[in-house]
Amino acid sequence: MAASLAPTRWADLDRLLLRPGNLVGPGFEPGPELLESLQNDLRVLVIGAGGLGCELLKDLALSGFGHIDVIDMDTIDVSNLNRQFLFRMQDVGKPKAEVAAERVMQRVKGVTVVPHFCRIEEKDVSFYQDFHIIVLGLDSLEARSYINSVVCGFLEYEEDGSPDQSTIKPLVDGGTEGFKGHARVIFPGITPCFHCSLWLFPPQITFPLCTLAETPRSPAHCIEYAHLIQWGQDRQGESFDADNPEHMKWIYDQAVKRGEQFNISGITYSLTQGVVKNIVPAIASTNAIVAATCALETLKIATMCSTGMEVYMQYTGTEGIYMRTVPHDKDPNCIMCSPGVPVEVDTTCTLQKFIDQLLKDSRFKLKLSKPSVSYHGDNLYMQAPPVLEEMTRPNLELSLLTLMDGKTSGVLNINDRRLTGVLRVRVTFKEGLDSVDMDTAGGG
Amino acid sequence: MAQRNNKYDRQLRIWGEHGQTALETARVCVLNCGPTGSEALKNLVLGGIGSFTIVDASKVSAADLGNNYLVDWESLGQSKAKSVCALLQELNESVGAKFVEESPEALLESNPAFFAQFTLVIATQMTEAPLLKLEEICRQQKVMLVIARSYGLAGLVRISVTEHDIIESKPDNKVEDLRLHKPWPELQSYVDEFDIDTQDHNIHKHIPFAILLIKIAEDWKKSHDGKLPANVRLFKEAITARRRVEEDEDNYNEALKSAYIVLFPPSISSQLRAVLEDKASDVDASSSDFWIMVSALKQFMANEGQGEPPLDGAIPDMHSFTDYYIKLQKIYQARAEADVTAVEGHVARILKQIGRESSPIPRSTIKLFCKNARNLRVLRCKMLSDEFSSRSGPELQRLLAVEESSHPALYVLLRAVDHFAATYNRFPGVFDGEMEEDVSRLKSLAVGLLNDMGGGGASLPEDVVSEICRFGAGEIHCVASIVGGIASQECIKLLTRQFTPIQGTFIYNAMSATSLVLNV
Ligand SMILES: [Zn+2]
């Protein structure tokens, strides 16, 4: 009994990791091996070392994770200090990832945090393959979509259409705005990916240019006029930098002048910054709540020590406090995570015609430029390198049905330099599609 | 000053300069500085409260190094309050930092007057008996109290204040108060200047939608015995009939989108109704400024307002020429100013009646009050002693049967663990060898508790009871960060008097990442 009383460092966490439970994840096996694997084997990547990132690093380190990497391209700004608690006034200007990693290692003995001071796109896709779980603390939709396409690119499907378990890379994502936030867990191929539920993110508000130019009515209209129109006219050749105080002051002065001209008041320097930089209000408490929710789910994925949350947690703190999970469904035809986007192809279609058809398909707009096609690991057509292109070129004139062993349907993998991962296309052959196409083409 | 504003920029955009000033003058006391207390305080220190005092008698142990970020290895064996205090101070030099190396329970007995110096007390990881004592002291000394508890994968947050008045509740869905259903004379005469059937297409598509809606409603009434359209569909048809499709008119799109507000103007919300009907609005010399303004608001609504609270004066953007819009905006602003002046008059008369002419309420305060009149809130919290002795068993019994989630069960069990501790001098599940016995002991205590509350016969889910024992009162860092985070968020709402705090007992279930507010 004395042994169980001795205060060890991980005594609190061990309650969950050493004891059997009734409300736990599938295959939970309590024992000291769990903590050992957290400390020694599991590798977690945190993307973003900002408001959520700082909290995530602390939370993961104090959840027993021993090897954490963090990637962020930003440097520390004074306005980060009201919530990004790993940074001090004297750190302003230094890379966030490096300072954050150093601080956490200093405080939480035994943890290794490896910083990467760069853009997420600068890393090879194989870099992301090395981690067991990726946790996102980001504020941009583009970055989230990028990482989503990377992990969906790792996903492979079995012959029967079920995802190959060994290729599923879990993503945990958090986001905040003021008193609100969300956390969610994505198992590509099993739960909805980002692309399946893009509707969760409201569209950004933009002002019509004619309003800005002809009928401004609000302070924001005057600011955006100075920013989007006047800068280009008056300061030709200079690129606008929102972090340059002189540039910001110029925008502010021009906006005030325009306001005077149109009788619009209420233009302040703070509002100018807010509009131009599209500043999202942020506070420490919401970041702490959302990040800890993400870190706890990461711990559950790694150890199965408790039941996981359902897909998407919504947090609202303005009127009372609500934390609720919202189940929603995968898009069965998602171009990122589905076993294959359905495409109907005429039985007589050649590989060349099929490629042309893909390029015309609105679902793949801006996603394809020079697609390469493979089937069950065989390269049907490769755009590069030249040797392979030459070798596979004769296939272009062959019928796709023949190339796919005469089967009535099957999945093709499409690669393209515009894609981050692979695009899976589920081809179904139909007779007489070509003539229908010709008819509509003629009629239009 | 510039650096301060830059540092707090992202939060100033939420609660403004006056909210920040309220934080900077707050004196906060935290009882126990485990991870829950430390994390709650961390968020408040970053946000820039005036000062904090930590009360904790314990020393930094190995276990603290595994779940609390605000202690370091160098402090092993030393005062935890001291260590946390020093590391918090590093986060924000402008915050005053103090600690008292004493147990909260002992301090409650030895020096209850100690608490009078604070604006707000956060009590973390404390059990029922000392909390009752603390609440009594806080209520007496008019100190706000926030209770936070992390327990394995469960948590609880509870506020105890006698009364909390909120002018700036800032609800998520703000209603547009445009008075399109009954334009006042100045607005009406501006509307009369427009010919909405003008053949100048450019003018036609630049008339603000508010003008269109007033005009079209007016025309409808003329041909329908002075009545408004019976439903929104009919009104929308009338609007559509006036638009010129080929012109792609944004102002008409906006008019269609907002058509319903003519037929369904904002009503008096139930919360505002409750404020107006509150006994405290019968004011006397001891009344607060808030209630004097509420009393003035009632008089305004009965007279000048004709049943409506003051106009807030804000209008949404409307597709239109600049000068049309700016003129309209000025008409709304002028009306709002006139309403403030009317309310100010009522305030002055009331102050005179109660003999308080010497300390008037500034116009800026009355203006803020009027601007937010539709969203006033008053929060009164039940005493813990009432909650603990209430006959809420039948309600809990109902919830236990209805709620698929385990929140009601967690509520009962979080109270039962304190009864367990009072009986056995330890929490359930702290010894590996006694797990099974503890599960049945805890269960019978919880059932007994429900019985005492009048909820005999209710059953608790076995799974949840055994999980609570499995947790063995462990404080998991992530759970503490969430519970502490929520506690700090509620402190900010209370201190800034903005947004609406939790009204009831907030139960957090970390197993499912969900919460429920119980009113028992
Ligand atoms: Zn998807």
The strand count of chain B comes to 10
Overall CATH class of the largest domain in chain B? Alpha Beta
| Strand fraction of chain B | 5-15%
Main sheet specs of chain B: 8 strands, mixed
CATH architecture of the largest domain in chain A, by name, is 3-Layer(aba) Sandwich
β-strand amount of chain A:
15-25%
Distance between the termini of chain A: 84 Å
Write the layout of secondary structure elements.
The complex is a heterodimer of chains A (444) and B (520).
Chain A: H1 2-5, H2 11-18, H3 32-40, E1 43-47, H4 51-61, E2 67-71, H5 96-107, E3 112-116, H6 125-129, E4 133-137, H7 141-154, E5 171-177, E6 180-186, H8 209-214, H9 219-234, H10 245-262, H11 269-276, H12 284-303, E7 312-316, E8 322-325, E9 341-346, H13 351-360, E10 372-375, E11 378-381, H14 386-392, H15 400-403, E12 409-415, E13 423-430, H16 433-443
Parallel strand pairs in A: 1-2, 1-4, 2-3, 4-5, 9-13
Antiparallel strand pairs in A: 5-6, 6-7, 7-8, 10-11, 10-12, 12-13
Chain B: H1 2-7, H2 9-24, E1 27-31, H3 35-47, E2 51-55, H4 64-67, H5 80-91, E3 96-100, H6 104-110, E4 120-124, H7 128-140, E5 144-151, E6 154-160, E7 164-166, H8 185-192, H9 201-204, H10 209-223, H11 232-242, H12 250-258, H13 260-263, H14 270-277, H15 289-302, H16 322-353, H17 363-371, E8 377-379, H18 384-389, H19 393-402, H20 407-424, H21 435-452, H22 462-471, H23 477-496, E9 505-509, E10 514-518
Parallel strand pairs in B: 1-2, 1-4, 2-3, 4-5
Antiparallel strand pairs in B: 5-6, 6-9, 7-8, 9-10
The complex binds zinc ion (ZN).
Residues 192-193, 195-196, 331, 334, 336-337 of chain A line the site of zinc ion (ZN).
